[in-house]
Amino acid sequence: MANDSLWLAKKYPVLKPWDIDTLVQEFQRQDLDANKGLPQRKLFDAVKLVEPQREYDEVRNALKKISLSRPDMVDQDEFVEVIAILRQGDKSGGSGVGNAARAFEGITSERAYERRTILKSEQNTSSAHTINEDEREEFTNHINLALAGDSDIGYRLPINPHTMQLFDEARDGLILSKLINYSMPDTIDERVLNRGKRLSPFQITENNNVAINSAKAIGCSVVNIGSQDLAEGREHLVLGLVWQIIKKGL
Q1: 166: burial class by Cβ within 10 Å (0-12, 13-18, 19+)?
Q2: Chain center to CA of 131
Q3: pTM above the 0.85 mark?
Q4: How far from each other are the two terminal CA atoms of the chain, in whole angstroms?
Q5: How confident is the model at residue 129, as a pLDDT?
């Protein structure tokens, strides 16, 4: 462990070897899978054990800067990297969102930018999608009320309406499928859904395809929405789909 800590300390100068020893020990205490990975959904709780001052969206933004070696799973080195990004943000006085990015939306507050805008860069192009906080909070509250006590996902509720947690919880297709059946009962035969706390990428894709096809069947527009978009938690697409599903049940 000492050699690993020294190597990671060189990789992430913001962390000291003894910091890394603590992080590694805490990570190894978590409920890891057979390949020693932590489900992404449990990352925030793990981070809070060593960095109790952190907020959900802060951890989420740090994770988005990392290329995970496995979908929806965080390994030990990636966990350390998340903490390093958070600590580096502390030292630089913020999360590192660039001035040009903020200017794109005409937002001068970095906190306001992070809470309201999702910025995405692909090759030489940039596009921004603004997330309406009021809508996100209302839709999240609706889901919490509608699906409370569900035998498959009840343990994941309530979702914090004041964070971006909704988009992470919707990644595996279960919440979207359950919401479809709440709005339009019996649309989905839930026996076809893959359930459980640890789904494989293939099972997640199957669930998301069921959700997309079922949403289309009840009259929702799913143009340009694919299973991968849901699995990646693409905020503007998930939020738009959630609103269409809720509206069908009103």
Answers
A1: buried
A2: 15
A3: no
A4: 56
A5: 62
- Amino acid code (one letter) for 240: G
pLDDT digits (tens, 9 = 90+) for 57-102: 999 999 999 999 988 899 999 999 999 999 988 777 654 444 443 4
Give per-residue pLDDT as tens, 200-246: 999 999 999 999 999 999 999 999 999 999 999 999 999 999 999 99
* The two structure tokens encoding residue 103: 């200017």
Averaged over 179-195, what is the pLDDT? 97
CB atoms within 10 A of CB 87: 16
194, 207 contact by CB (below 8 A): yes
**Cβ–Cβ < 8 Å for 248, 219:** yes
Q: Which two three-digit tokens encode residue 115? A: 């809470």
Q: Report the distance separating Cα 95 and Cα 108, nearest Å.
A: 14
Q: What is the 3-state secondary structure (H, E, C) of the chain?
A: CHHHHHHHHHHCCCCCHHHHHHHHHHHHCCCCCCCCCEEHHHHHHHHHHHCCCCCHHHHHHHHCCCCCCECCEECHHHHHHHHHHHHHHHHHCCCCCCHHHHHHHCCCCHHHHHHHEEEEEECCEEEEEECCHHHHHHHHHHHHHHHCCCCCCHHHCCCCCCCCHHHHHHHHCHHHHHHHHHHCCCCCCHHHCCCCCCCCHHHHHHHHHHHHHHHHHCCCCCCCCCHHHHHCCCHHHHHHHHHHHHHHCC
Q: Of 51, 142, 45, which Cα lies nearest the Cα of 88?
A: 51
Whether 118 has a pLDDT exceeding 90, the answer reads no
Residue 182 and residue 246: Cα distance in Å, rounded? 9
